[in-house]
Amino acid sequence: MKISLYVAMSLDGYIAKPNDDLQWLNRFEATDEDYGYAEYYSSIDAIIMGSRSYQIIKHLGEWPYKDKPCYVMSHQLKSLDSPHTHLISGNIAAVIAKLKSANYRKIWLLGGGKLVAAFHQADMIDEYIISIIPVILGNGIPLFPTPLNEKPLKLVEAKSYSTGVVQLQYTKAK
């Protein structure tokens, strides 16, 4: 089973503006380019996200992941009301063991920053696909909000798009 981080961040490392504002991404979504999203989405079997990401996505409108099982890690939430969502809690190793028993091949780690940092610290991210958006936000919610363990990575691919977006794909260095 592979855990894959697929995320967009500003040039200065933020995944959202303060108050979870994602509006800065809109002008890059308005193009005819999907930045490999459709191909990536078809390659995953399930999604895991934190409770804050779940709350943000839930309030954006119709649930966009109806066709994939989605696991929401939370210690605060008591229930979920989106299709195909499952509430999970516990340490990262226990969560991964549960997901492995479902025989998923590839799981999208859909943030946020605290969840990404926890999976990184537990050495559970196999692939990092980070789209760098050509914007400096100056403040907001960082991709990696806490100091992390050093982890060497190997560049697999780098793509640039006409919009100025650069997408980097890394795996763990051997």
Sum this structure up briefly.
This protein has 174 residues and is an alpha/beta fold. It has a single domain (2-172), classed as 3-Layer(aba) Sandwich (Dihydrofolate Reductase, subunit A), CATH 3.40.430.10.
SSE topology:
Layout: E1 2-10, E2 14-16, H1 26-29, H2 37-43, E3 46-50, H3 51-58, E4 70-73, E5 85-88, H4 92-101, E6 106-109, H5 113-121, E7 127-133, E8 141-142, E9 153-160, E10 166-172
Parallel strand pairs: 1-6, 1-7, 3-4, 3-6, 4-5
Antiparallel strand pairs: 2-8, 7-10, 9-10
User: Would you tell me the structural class of the helices and strands?
Assistant: alpha/beta
Give the strand order of the largest sheet, numbering strands 1, 2, ... along the chain: 5-4-3-6-1-7-10-9
Q: Could you tell me the number of beta strands? A: 10
Distance between the termini: 17 Å
Reading the helices and strands in chain order gives EEHHEHEEHEHEEEE
Number of domains: 1
With helices defined by DSSP (H or I, 4 residues minimum), what is the helix count?
Answer: 5
Report the β-strand fraction as a percent range: 25-35%
